[in-house]
Hints:
- It comes from Holothuria leucospilota.
- InterPro entries: SEZ6_CSMD_C4BPB_Regulators, Sushi/SCR/CCP_sf, Sushi_SCR_CCP_dom.
- It holds the Pfam family Sushi.
- The chain is 0% helix and 40% strand.
- It is rod-shaped.
Amino acid sequence: MKMKHKVRFAGYIQCQTCAPNQCPKSDFDANLVVSPDKTCYDSGDPVTLSCSGVIGGPTSNTCGTQGWILPTATCEVFTCDRPNPIGEGLSVSPDKNSYDARETVTYSCNEGYILFGADQATCDSQDTWNPSTVPLCSASCDVPDVSNGDITTTGPFSHGETAVVNCDEGYTLNGTSAWTITCQDGAWDPVPECYGFCYLPDIPNSDAEAGKQVTHGTQTSVQCETGYSYEQETTFDVNCNNGTFEGDLPDECHQDCEEPVPPSEGSVTGGNRHGETISYECDEGYILNGTDSATCINGFWSDDVPTCYHGFGTGTGVDKGAAVSLGPSKWYLSTEVRLDSAAVRPVKIARPVKIVRSVKIVRSVKIVRPVKIVRPVNIVSPVITASSKMAAAMFEGAAAAVGTARLAAVGTKW
Length: 414
């Protein structure tokens, strides 16, 4: 008895009759391509199966005495359009406009980009990809260049990945030893710089701690000890900038001097710190004997305190440019008289001296010993030269001259 099988042809069913020991082609999915192509297959006949879509089941089979030995396959036929959207740097392979059922595509990124998402997708049903989300390509970040430091991991780094920056020994990241940075679409957020520490030097006579570490961007202060200074200052504020102090630091704090003492019958002005200079002045009617200034040098004044002498009102001294009275009569010197402040002893005149003409002294006079004139001297018109030496004085009957007078009055006439 022959078996009847239904065969589908273009929308209608046609009955197909095969012998009992035969296998009908109609047992397979109509979308399958069966080779060899026959209506009925005898026992032992093999077939191969193919599909323009996706085969569900074995791709070959054999006719047995009771029908097909293996389960019959199916054929799914549908298509998918090209995955969209394809972003910057993303490539798809194979790249075409339409894909068959169950066809798989592979995604990849161009050089310099990193893939975020699945690298494959399959046409799972009509116009449906699995997974449905198309991946993205983001620019990668290379290993950052860190001045005086490095990072803990190696690259390349993809979008959103982080790296930890560590500074070399002796450097810091504004007070912290590590810093995390993030790769943002091919670029790092600002890469920090490792800055060098500053170290205080040894500064004698100050509170500076030699070798003290100061962090970049911070300020420190150095104070001279009490009674010491540098360039008339005692406090020094400096800022650390990448291993270098900005501002003045002393190499040493110098000892200041004692408070200056004014001369008797005089005054003194000026400070007593190292390097400062003071000035001496005598009161009105007094002449300065000694230096008129002194400088403080590391705790010591450069000169002694001078003295002030009273002017020659009656033979004990001579005021600058003043008229003098010697004994009972008045004798006048030129108002242009200038006597050296270094005159260390007064002139003692035992008897009156008559000065016929006025004397104009244009340079200083230094009298180192008293001169005693025992008899009147009539000076007619001598010429006095610089550093002239009075070896003797002419007297009527006897002469006695002791000491030396240094007169700097070149070409002056009496």
